[in-house]
Design a protein that fits this description.
The complex is a heterodimer. By secondary structure, chain A is an all-beta fold. Chain A has no helices and eleven strands. The chains are: A mainly beta, B mainly beta.
Chain lengths: 112, 112
């Protein structure tokens, strides 16, 4: 079955560390997205990519970085420059038209 | 400025009644609008998409309307059930790079 997989489900980060969240899809989707969700809040767009080797900043890109070297993969790195990284991170993918997004199960990142 | 707004207050209704959720947008001209359901700790799941030339779309107990003059979409759940309790998000595409953005969501609680 096709789908989108995020790993790990839970991640703990020490202050000053960079961590990378994985997102893989086998839906043959061109577009992939990363969102951050804080408790009781909506989804805020961090980065998105429409094609391989190209990506755009979303509304809250500071302190994050991404790469899109393969169509199937869109990893997100939370850098030490992100001062408040504790949140629920969601990855999504769509076809070229942006319709009917599929989401992963999310990664809950906590700073310890 | 551009905004996509949903009622931030939770909607509480009795089982069997119709739930109506609102999505308003400002300074966008979306070709279509999407609705998703999110359960706690999970990624959103796509429900319905309505295009600008469609007034209404139905799927089982769900109905969506789209008024491009009012810049508003309404999402209805008829004969609501406790299992319908969740957060419902609207989403649209913004800009030439297909930036997929979401409203903050409205939490629906259906009481037996």
């Amino acid at each position: 079955d096709g789908g989108i997989t995020q790993s790990p489900k839970y991640l703990f980060r020490k202050e000053g560390q960079n961590v990378t969240l994985s997102c893989e899809q086998n839906l043959n989707h061109d577009a992939m997205y990363w969102y951050r969700q804080d408790p009781g809040q909506g989804l805020r767009l961090i980065y998105y990519s429409q094609i391989v080797n190209d990506f755009q900043k979303g509304d809250i890109a500071e302190g994050y970085s991404v790469s899109r070297e393969k169509k199937e993969s869109f990893p997100l790195t939370v850098t030490s420059a992100q001062k408040n990284p504790t949140a629920f991170y969601l990855c999504a993918s769509t076809g070229r038209t942006g319709e009917k997004a599929f989401f992963g199960q999310g990664t809950r990142l906590t700073v310890v | 400025s551009q905004k996509i707004e949903q009622n931030s207050e939770a909607l509480n209704i009795q089982e069997g009644k119709t739930a109506t959720l609102t999505c308003n947008y400002t300074n966008y001209s979306p070709a279509y609008l999407q609705w998703y359901r999110q359960d706690p700790g999970r990624g959103p799941v796509f429900l319905l998409l309505i295009r600008e030339n469609e007034k209404e779309k139905r799927k089982e107990r769900l109905k969506v309307t789209f008024d491009t003059t009012l810049k508003q979409s309404l999402f209805h759940i008829t004969a609501s059930q406790p299992a319908d309790s969740a957060t419902y998000l609207c989403a649209l595409l913004s800009g030439g790079y297909n930036k997929l953005i979401f409203g903050a969501g409205t939490r629906l609680a259906v009481h037996p």
